[in-house]
């Protein structure tokens, strides 16, 4: 579904954010990308739907090359759901409008159809009663659940999560993780940048560990948690799990 | 001591009102066209394409570095005859008002553009990423997501700029356009009461601008509370 082959990203100032990164996400697979901050994991996930460009290598999503000049990026992105660290709901629209705008303007769905789909998804994340409210009236956890519903409203073939819980207060993290766990169990293809190792243990198939722009480890979950091969992954795990 | 005689004013009200209508027409047209054009210039200024960005910067710098009265004179001297020739109009056509509108629109666009650029930059960068991630084109992301938020943030500044525009329209008195100030001038000269008429015109400008500024200020405070 998602194939990342030898991707490098170099900023104009010479800083290399990604160094020859490769990994893949098969259909129905959940992979967790973790690593210390500044390791390039957010940059890598943003390359998948071309929110960031890259200079070398290739990323293929559902058979379409992301970096190819002829690729219809808006069309590709409309099939790839993305959830951001800071939610990025549109503050000037109601919760329901947040869910319907792209359905109508991008997919060309009829308004009633989009509303129906939107309400169904709000129901699913437990927020149907909040449909007429504005994002600013919701808590962080609720906003992030709306953001997940907004991405799902486009009927994506896969979902990208860029640190979806790291801007949340601790008591709100679980309500978001629960939605993600349910989604994973339903077979959604997911690439998740997160430090939530509990989530990784529960639903991830594979774990990718990055450090300083490199994919240091790409292992099955059991292997990663059981016996990480690299020293850096061991050090990272011991730090993060000791809390 | 000067003897004030305000009696010419009541008699001149219809004439002055006709002038005020011209003033308002020029203000409203220059505001609408200026904001429209200013938005385009602001988006060009933020473009990654250096040529496009430089063109826009050049426009803004040019108009901000030239006195308004020179732009007006230039337009009054050259543009009217041009319009008449191009559209083959009779000389009597209301070409002077049109060129005033064009001049103010172009001039104001430069000022509006800077306000709008700041407004666009005040919208969080992640918003455009979220819009693009949903499959919107850059144009859709701007139109549906970024600009509505930008305009909401900058409405008070745009209105303040429009109040300045309203005052600046009095500069058309250098031409044959009879705006409110021009009308007051004519009445004053005719009746030998120029001091009274200019004081009266000043009072009218003051009242209108003060009331509008107060409204804008209140609106701004309300936005602050909402945000």
Describe this structure in words.
- The complex is a heterodimer of chains A (243) and B (227).
- Chain A has 243 residues and is α/β, with parallel strands linked by helices.
- Chain A has helices at residues 41-48, 73-78, 95-105, 111-124, 140-152, 170-185, 197-203, 221-226, 231-241, and strands spanning 2-10, 16-25, 30-34, 56-61, 64-65, 80-83, 158-162, 190-193, 206-211, 214-220.
- Chain A starts with a strand and ends with a helix.
- The model of chain A has no long low-confidence stretch (mean pLDDT 91).
- Chain B has 227 residues and is mostly helical.
- Chain B has a single domain (8-226), classed as MetI-like fold (Orthogonal Bundle).
- Chain B is built from 8 helices and no strands.
- Chain B has helices spanning 8-45, 50-65, 68-87, 95-121, 125-133, 138-168, 180-191, 194-226.
- In chain B, helix 1 (8-45) packs antiparallel against helix 7, helix 2 packs across helix 4 (95-121) and helix 5 (125-133) packs across helix 6.
- The radius of gyration of chain B is 21 Å and the shape is globular.
- Chain B starts with 7 loop residues before the first helix and ends with a helix.
- At the A-B interface, helix 2, strand 6 and helix 3 of A face helix 5 and helix 6 of B.
| Helical content of chain B (DSSP H or I, runs of 4+) | over 70%
Distance between the termini of chain B: 55 Å
The poorly predicted ranges of chain B are: none
- Per the CATH scheme, the topology name of chain B is MetI-like fold
Task: Determine Rg of chain A (CA atoms, Å).
Answer: 18 Å
CATH architecture of chain B, by name, is Orthogonal Bundle
As laid out across the biggest beta sheet of chain A, the strand order is 6-7-8-3-9-10
Gap between N and C termini of chain A, in Å? 35 Å
Features:
A: 243 residues; alpha/beta; four-stranded antiparallel beta sheet; 9 helices; 38% helix; B: 227 residues; mainly alpha; MetI-like fold; 82% helix
Quick recap:
The complex is a heterodimer of chains A (about 240) and B (about 230). Chain A is an alpha/beta fold and about 240 residues long.
């Amino acid at each position: 579904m998602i194939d990342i082959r030898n991707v490098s990203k170099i900023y104009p100032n010479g800083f290399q954010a990604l160094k020859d990164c490769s990994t893949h996400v098969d259909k129905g697979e959940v992979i967790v990308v973790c690593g210390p901050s500044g390791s390039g994991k957010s940059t890598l996930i943003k390359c998948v739907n071309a929110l960031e460009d890259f200079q070398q290598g290739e990323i293929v999503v559902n058979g379409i090359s992301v970096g190819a000049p002829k690729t219809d990026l808006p069309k590709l992105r409309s099939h790839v759901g993305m959830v951001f660290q800071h939610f990025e709901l549109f503050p000037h629209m109601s919760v329901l409008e947040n869910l319907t705008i792209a359905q109508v303007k991008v997919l060309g769905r009829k308004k009633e159809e989009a509303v129906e789909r939107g309400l169904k998804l709000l129901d699913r994340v437990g927020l149907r009663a909040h449909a007429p409210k504005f994002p600013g009236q919701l808590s962080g956890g609720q906003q992030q659940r709306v953001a997940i519903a907004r991405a799902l409203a486009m009927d994506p073939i896969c979902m990208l999560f860029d640190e979806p819980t790291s801007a949340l207060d601790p008591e709100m993290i679980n309500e978001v993780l629960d939605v993600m766990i349910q989604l994973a169990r339903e077979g959604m293809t997911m690439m998740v940048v997160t430090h939530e190792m509990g989530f990784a243990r529960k639903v991830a198939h594979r774990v990718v560990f990055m450090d300083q722009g490199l994919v240091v480890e790409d292992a099955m979950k059991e292997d990663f948690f059981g016996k990480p091969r690299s020293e850096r992954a061991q050090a990272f795990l011991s730090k993060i799990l000791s809390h | 001591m000067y003897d004030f005689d305000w009696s010419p004013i009541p008699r001149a009200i219809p004439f002055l009102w006709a002038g005020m209508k011209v003033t308002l027409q020029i203000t409203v047209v220059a505001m609408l066209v200026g904001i429209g054009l200013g938005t385009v210039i602001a988006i060009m200024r933020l473009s990654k394409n250096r040529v496009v960005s430089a063109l826009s910067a050049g426009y803004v710098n040019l108009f901000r570095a030239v006195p308004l009265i020179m732009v007006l004179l230039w337009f009054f001297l050259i543009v009217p005859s041009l319009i008449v020739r191009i559209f083959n109009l009779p000389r009597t056509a209301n070409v002077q008002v049109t060129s005033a509108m064009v001049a103010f629109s172009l001039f104001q666009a430069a000022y509006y553009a800077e306000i709008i650029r700041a407004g666009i930059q005040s919208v969080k960068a992640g918003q455009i990423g979220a819009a693009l991630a949903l499959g919107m084109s850059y144009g859709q992301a701007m139109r549906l997501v970024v600009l509505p938020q930008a305009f909401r943030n900058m409405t008070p500044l745009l209105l303040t700029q429009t109040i300045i525009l309203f005052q600046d329209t009095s500069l058309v008195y250098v031409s044959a356009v009879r705006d409110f100030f021009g009308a007051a001038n004519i009445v004053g000269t005719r009746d030998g009461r120029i001091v009274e008429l200019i004081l009266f015109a000043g009072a009218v400008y003051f009242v209108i601008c003060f009331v509008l500024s107060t409204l804008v200020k209140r609106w701004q405070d309300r936005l602050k509370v909402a945000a």
